Amino acid sequence: MAADMKLAGCSCSGPVDTVVDLRGPFSRLSRPRVRPASRTQRGFLSPPDSSVLFFLRRKANAPVALSFEKIAGDKRTPLIILHGLLGSKNNWKSISKALVHSTSRTVYVLDARNHGESPHTPTMTYQLMARDLIAFLHSEGFSSAIVMGHSMGGRTAMAAALLDAAMIRELLVLDISPFGVSESISTLPRFVEMMRRIELPSHLNLPQARKVVDEMLLPIVPETGVRQFLLTNLYKADDGFKWKANLDAISLCFNPHICTFPLDELPGQYEGPTSFIGGALSDYINKRDIERIREVFPRSEFHFVEGAGHWLHADKPKEFISLVSSIIK
């Protein structure tokens, strides 16, 4: 089962200069290369004038129509699932079907902006992603919904609850907190930057290309599961290999808009039922923050899945499905 990427992180680093040893099964193929930073990235182009900037900002700040998959159940309040950073709705196929089976609720799984099949935009903040979610709920005619988000998706769900509490009937936040960042993914900006700059020979097929990129990422992403997860974003288009995720926007917006939660910019409290579900082996929900969390989400309950890390739904799927079903059933 594909797993969602971890969210919280650290300051962005600059372009990486990595020497890659491609000896092995594909050493006889044309070698991929890591593209040097462009003139635009180096800051040689002058900025647009103020009228153009106003138009671009207004367009960039508008909600986008999110791609989604519906798994039909009964007519009660639906469950909306939001994936994590560099994930997509496809990562949640088996879990969403299992939850429909166990709860009978209809489930919608959404692609966030700049992910999966949703539109690419140059800007990406939790307020914008929350407004995308709220716009989706209105477009589907829902008066409210149960929203469950993992990592980045969990913070999007929290932001939506604080912006428009009436639309969020119940909140489930998976292995993320409104406070702090985890130290466990300090390399995220580095390997996003490498992914941006990889160029692959067009004659490779997709399995071959994924094999080559896997070898290139190995020095900075030693965890096999993380590399496999990242590679679900790679696909072959008519004009060559591309990434489903908008890596340019993610790299630009990661610090501070994605790696931290803008609690100071979001109003008041969310007083609806809220469940924080963490992996017992993860450091993303610090138990010392529980009382602070309850100041913002006063009806919070906390659950920790034994033997699970950040990807609790992939590490312990049966236990995860059972717990979520008992909460929302």
From TrEMBL:
Its EC number is 3.1.1.116. Gene3D superfamilies: alpha/beta hydrolase (3.40.50.1820). One of its GO terms (molecular function) is carboxylic ester hydrolase activity. Residues 78-317 form the AB hydrolase-1 domain. GO terms for cellular component: mitochondrion. Keywords: Hydrolase. Coiled coil: none annotated. The keyword Hydrolase applies. InterPro entries: AB_hydrolase_1, AB_hydrolase_fold. Transmembrane segments: none annotated. It catalyses: 1-octadecanoyl-2-(4Z,7Z,10Z,13Z,16Z,19Z-docosahexaenoyl)-sn-glycerol + H2O = 2-(4Z,7Z,10Z,13Z,16Z,19Z-docosahexaenoyl)-glycerol + octadecanoate + H(+); 1-octadecanoyl-2-(5Z,8Z,11Z,14Z-eicosatetraenoyl)-sn-glycerol + H2O = 2-(5Z,8Z,11Z,14Z-eicosatetraenoyl)-glycerol + octadecanoate + H(+); a 1,2-diacyl-sn-glycerol + H2O = a 2-acylglycerol + a fatty acid + H(+); a 1,3-diacyl-sn-glycerol + H2O = a 1-acyl-sn-glycerol + a fatty acid + H(+). It comes from the Eukaryota. Signal peptide: none annotated. Belongs to the AB hydrolase superfamily. This is sn-1-specific diacylglycerol lipase ABHD11.
